[in-house]
Amino acid sequence: MTKITITKAPGTWSVRAGGAVLGESKDALVLSEGEYPDVIYFPRSDIAMAFLDATDHRSHCPHKGDASYFSIVTKSETIENAAWSYEAPKDDVARIKDHLAFYASDKVTVEEI
């Protein structure tokens, strides 16, 4: 089985898209899963949810559960399914409940500041 670890991310993390800061957090989490790159999860309370629209897209991870997706709506465009959340994560990863993760890309920046 893939080993998943969740730790508090050091420092302060931000996520930006379309020239706007969507969120900044000193309470972000780092999820490490096997050979995959680490993923930063932001507390939902630290994200400007007005920029996010829930979509119908879903995926399933055998280790984490069912993921719901959000598109980021900026002044100039909508970045489809750019964020995800596990609304009811499995017990082993319960710490990521009420957190959001973002696909870093040329349109979305996730970084320690």
Describe the structure.
The protein has 113 residues and is an all-beta fold. The chain has a single domain (4-112), classed as Beta Complex (Metal Binding Protein, Guanine Nucleotide Exchange Factor, Chain A). It has no helices and ten strands. It has strands at residues 4-8, 13-17, 20-25, 29-33, 39-43, 52-61, 65-73, 78-86, 99-102, 108-112. A hairpin with a 2-residue loop joins β2 (13-17) and β3. It is globular. The mean pLDDT is 95.
In short:
With 113 residues, the chain is mostly beta strands. The protein has no helices and ten strands. It has a seven-stranded antiparallel sheet, with no helix packed on it.
Distance between the termini: 34 Å
Can you give the mean pLDDT?
95
Q: Which segments are poorly predicted (pLDDT under 50) over 5 or more consecutive residues? A: none
- Output the CATH class name: Mainly Beta
General shape? globular
Strand content range: over 45%
Q: What is the H level of CATH, i.e. the homologous superfamily?
A: Domain of unknown function (DUF427)
Radius of gyration: 13 Å
Helix count, per DSSP?
0
